[in-house]
Amino acid sequence: MVMKKLYILLSGLLMLLSYSCIKSTGNEYKPDLPIPVVQGLAATYTIFTHRDTLKINPTVDNESQYDFYWTAFSANFNVNAGVVPKPDTLSKSRSLSYVVLLNPGQYTLVFNVKDKRTGVTQMLPSALIVSTLTSSGWYLLKDDNNKTDYDFIYNTGRIDNLLNFFNGKSLTGKAITSVFCGGFKQGLLSTDQYNVLFAVSDQDAAILRIDNGKIVMGYDDMFFTKPTVKRPQNVTQPQDNSIHFINDGKVYIMSKGAFFSSPPVSTYKMSSIAAVGADDMFFDENSKSMVFIDGPNYVLPGANGAALKNTNASLVWLGGYPGLRGVALALFRQNDGSGTLFKLNVTYGPMLGSGVLITGSNPVPATHGLLSADVIGGNYDSDYIYYAKGNKIYETDYASLPENLQVTLPVGETVTCIQHIKYPQPASGVTNTVNYLAIASYNNGNYKVWLHTISATGTIQALAQPNFTGKGRVARINYMENGLGSRTY
């Protein structure tokens, strides 16, 4: 996508400058494109706005033959709109010393070298990433005294209660979840795209810009028609350009750039438990059936997923691993207290009835710790499952369901969150620079967050000290780097 934007940008610029790059000789046109020899330019520059000064001092052979200027073009635009954004001129000299005041985001920085004799301008582009302190670090969604907020921790410091710090208010209620949503915008035709976090408490919700911490939508102004009952339960970021928000047992759908629309008419009462595959996965508590959402439509599993319909069971946990893996694990509890653990192929075809959806199922004894766990978390890479009871964390797996004690936290700690944090988001050819099983615990008004490395066999080892501590109870963890975030697993 970045390369596509750069190609469109440079194509547009070349078209604009084409008249100065052609010399007329009678009835013929002869290209005259002298190429200056320039050294000292990097492929990418990363800077902080309102803090850094961007200094670049390239060398140019036969410097006196040229004029120079520097421009920056925002890459935060819609590639399908066919509109080249207007540049900001940063300097009109060879050496650049620019006090950065650009809005956070991705830019193309262009060093323009203009031949004084011919008027030909050679454009030399570099990628420019403009960040803020809030663009890289750990976002811990927590609640404290019925207020939900983020503690943000970065390499050289932290901002506690970030929502209140930038907006003068926190959310009301107990923290539920937080998801990263890329490519957000306000207005379907807007070319200004930015990344956000969507925070949910049991009484409130908010969408905030990552680059400046500002709330761009609160619960009261994110719907076309506001629900009559305010009962936020969960939010998911599908694989497409929408967001799904569960409120009072109904799933509201937002196309980024618009508002949440009312759900299709149905008898469904959706559980707060949901996950992401090629389509998003929900559970109707009335019919005891899995329900998928494909675009604006509810879809029940087809004949290939008959065991997921009218289950006469309750959904305990659902882990979705979209993208490269295309797998989900779903744990159900039967009326007699026993359970069933399903493994699903959640690529697009099987979810819509074509191919094998249920790749296996295992019975879970009523005495198994999974069915009485305080918190359950998964593993994106393999069929390992982690669960906590009190201050003890166990590991099991889909195939044989062992109960392997991994870590015993200090006495008095209660686990509140287990997540597999991977960044960048898994994709073909991507190497994860962050890969932890993140565990949050709570004791006497304070949280601890432990970042465990995961072995090839799914095990973790005890840590001598937590990585982060603070006030409140942590419900969800997001990792961010240059404004891009991890998915929620």
Global shape: globular
Percentage of β-strand residues: over 45%
**β-strand number:** 41
As residue ranges, the low-confidence spans are: 1-30
What is the secondary structure topology, with strand pairs?
Blueprint: H1 2-17, E1 22-25, E2 28-31, E3 38-39, E4 44-48, E5 53-56, E6 59-60, E7 66-74, E8 88-91, E9 96-99, E10 105-115, E11 121-131, E12 137-144, E13 147-154, E14 157-159, H2 162-167, E15 171-172, E16 175-184, E17 194-201, E18 205-209, E19 215-218, E20 232-236, E21 242-247, E22 250-255, E23 260-261, E24 275-276, E25 280-284, E26 289-294, E27 297-299, E28 313-321, E29 327-334, E30 339-345, H3 348-351, E31 358-364, E32 375-378, E33 384-389, E34 392-397, E35 404-408, E36 414-423, E37 434-443, E38 446-452, E39 468-471, E40 473-481, E41 484-485
Parallel strand pairs: 4-11
Antiparallel strand pairs: 1-2, 3-6, 5-9, 7-8, 7-10, 10-11, 12-13, 12-40, 13-14, 13-15, 16-17, 17-18, 18-19, 20-21, 21-22, 22-23, 24-25, 25-26, 26-27, 28-29, 29-30, 30-31, 32-33, 33-34, 34-35, 36-37, 37-38, 38-39, 40-41
Written description of the protein model:
There is one protein chain. The chain is mainly beta and 489 residues long. It has a domain at 2-131: Immunoglobulin-like, CATH 2.60.40.10. The strands form 11 sheets. Strands 12, 13, 14, 15, 40 and 41 form a 6-stranded antiparallel sheet that branches. The longest helix has 16 residues, at 2-17.
Task: Please give a handful of descriptors for the protein shown.
48% strand, mainly beta, 489 residues, 41 strands, five-stranded mixed sheet, single chain, Immunoglobulin-like
